[in-house]
UniProtKB/TrEMBL annotation:
It comes from Sarcophilus harrisii (Tasmanian devil). Its main location: membrane. GO terms for molecular function: GDP-fucose transmembrane transporter activity. This is Solute carrier family 35 member C1. One of its GO terms (biological process) is GDP-L-fucose salvage. GO terms for cellular component: Golgi membrane. It holds the Pfam family TPT.
């Protein structure tokens, strides 16, 4: 069967809309029992929630704990990238030694591949750094609202890069998200807990998350379409690029005089953060595989709601009615946008199917 190559505009469109665009592998097999499928989906979704929420709370501890007192957010991010790169290499070696037991693509030092991935690595560094800096300066409860503009940037970049218009319903959903964001900022200010620096980092993180989706689609062909090879080269590049930043911002000196450098507990927490960073990519892929991109977005929105409630309870915070309203607006707007885009994609597929059938009948 001939396959029509994807144009760059189509690839960017898929990245911005969240569509996977990947064809199903092989013919559909026999349906598994409903209870088995439901149990597997529940397990994968639970795993995604546990790892994602745990990673946020752990990173908050590493970045802003009064008991730790480590003012080196770039070093924490660098170490997590280093752990991810080493894990990829270790799994690659293990797969080579035990091919029947472990499945992982071969990764090796490749200057050409690293250069091809470099544009993505620059965006990736911005994404993870701004994410951690946002988390350092704002509370976990406000973290989701502070980083809530990714969907808005997706729509904006779709128009600027692809001249792709967005439906009124989707734009209305984005308006609700923006309204929730500003109300959240206002309420944080009213409570005296607003950090303008942290909020700015959250906006920059949202922009980088959107750009990361675009560049991921663009550079995947350079690593034979392998997400794990991309992860390896991306994190290796990030480790190298972080070194001058650590020198420039004086974090190497900060770490050198840190009083817990000989603490096994500290390095255990740092390594655990790196393991969570590696695992979140895997469980995200699993959740999309066993559900759908649309369900993954809904699950992520629900997870953010649970994370906010847990943070308020854990840190014993008291929030106003309007503060909770801002969170509900962000979550509701995000859910509505996901629902609207899902309906639009389904409608487009239904309209395309008859035309494809007509072409097949005509022998085109």
């Amino acid at each position: 069967m001939n396959r029509t190559p994807l144009k760059r505009s189509r690839i960017l469109s898929m990245a911005l809309s969240g569509a996977s665009g990947a064809p199903a592998e092989g013919a559909p097999g026999p349906e598994k029992p409903f209870l088995l499928r439901a149990a597997r989906i529940a397990l994968v979704v639970t795993l995604y929630w546990v790892i994602s929420i745990s990673m946020v709370f752990l990173n908050k501890y590493l970045l802003d704990s009064p008991s730790l007192r480590l003012d080196a957010p770039l070093f924490v991010t660098f170490y997590q990238c280093l752990v991810t790169a080493l894990l990829c290499k270790a799994l690659s070696l293990l797969a080579a030694c035990r091919p029947g037991a472990v499945r992982f693509p071969a990764v090796r030092a490749d200057l050409k591949a690293s250069r091809s991935v470099l544009p993505l690595s620059l965006v990736f560094i911005g994404m993870i750094t701004f994410n951690n800096l946002c988390l350092k300066y704002v509370g976990v409860a406000f973290y989701h609202v502070g980083r809530s503009l990714t969907t808005v940037f997706n729509v904006l970049l779709s128009y600027l890069l692809l001249k792709q218009t967005t439906s009124f319903s989707a734009l209305l959903s984005c308006g609700v998200i923006i309204g929730g964001f500003w109300l959240g900022v206002d309420q944080e200010g009213e409570e005296g807990t607003l950090s303008w620096v942290g909020t700015l980092f959250g906006v920059l993180a949202s922009l980088c998350v959107s750009l990361n989706a675009i560049y991921t689609k663009k550079v995947l062909p350079a690593v034979d379409g392998s997400i794990w090879r991309l992860t390896f080269y991306n994190n290796v590049n990030a480790c190298i690029l972080f070194l001058p930043l650590l020198l420039l911002f004086g974090e190497l000196q900060t770490v050198a005089v840190f009083d817990k450098l000989d603490s096994a507990y500290f390095w255990g927490m740092m390594t655990l953060g790196g393991l969570f960073g590696f695992a979140i990519g895997y469980v995200t892929g699993l959740q999309i595989k066993f559900t759908s991109p649309l369900t993954h977005n809904v699950s992520g929105t629900a997870k953010a709601c649970a994370q906010t409630v847990l943070a308020v309870l854990y840190f014993e915070e008291t929030k106003s009615f309007l503060w909770w309203t801002s969170n509900l607006m962000v979550l509701g707007g995000s859910s509505a946008y996901t629902w609207v885009k899902g309906l639009e994609m389904k409608k487009a597929q239904e309209e395309l199917a008859p035309r494809e059938g007509e072409k097949g009948e005509m022998g085109v």
